[in-house]
Design a protein that fits this description.
Layout lengths: L15 E12 L6 E6 L3 E9 L9 E6 L6 E15 L9 E10 L4 H14 L2
Antiparallel strand pairs: 1-2, 1-4, 2-3, 3-6, 4-5, 5-6
C-alpha cells in the first residue's frame, strides 16, 4: 500500500508476507479455510473464496495452521475483530467463487497466544 504525501501510516505494526501456505479457519466465516497472505503482531490479511461473491459473517476467532517439514504450527482460537473485507482486485479466475481479502486485528491475546504468534511470525514470515 503506497501512502500519499503527508499521509500517515495507520498500522500499528508492519505486516510481513508469509512463506509457504498458512491456512486460516475463521469462526464464524466461510466454509472452506482461507489463506493468510500477510501477518503482523497486530493483524492478519486472509484471502478466502466467497461463493457468489457474498461476504462472510464478521470473524470473531481465527485458527492458523501451517504444515512444516520439521515442525507444524497451529495457533488455536485467536480472538480477532474484522477490520475490512473487500473483493480482490482484479478478480482471479476462480470457477464459481469470488476471492475476497479480509483484514482482522488480533485482540485480547493471552501471554501464551502472543508468544506463539510472535514465534510464528519469526519462523514463517519473510
Amino acid at each position: 500500500m503506497s501512502l500519499g504525501a503527508g499521509q500517515p501510516e495507520r498500522r500499528r505494526a508492519k505486516r510481513f508476507p508469509l512463506c509457504g501456505k498458512a491456512l486460516a479457519l475463521m469462526r464464524p466465516g466461510p466454509g472452506p479455510p482461507g489463506r493468510v497472505v500477510r501477518i503482523s503482531i497486530a493483524a492478519a490479511e486472509v484471502v478466502y473464496e466467497a461463493p457468489d461473491g457474498v461476504q462472510a459473517p464478521e470473524t470473531r476467532e481465527l485458527d492458523i495452521l501451517v504444515a512444516g517439514f520439521t515442525r507444524g504450527v497451529y495457533l488455536r482460537r485467536v480472538p480477532v475483530a474484522t477490520l475490512s473485507d473487500r473483493p480482490v482486485e482484479p478478480p482471479a479466475p476462480f470457477a464459481g467463487a469470488s476471492p475476497r481479502r479480509r483484514v482482522v486485528a488480533f485482540g485480547g491475546l493471552t501471554g501464551v497466544q502472543r508468544g506463539e504468534l510472535q514465534s510464528f511470525i519469526e519462523e514463517c514470515a519473510l
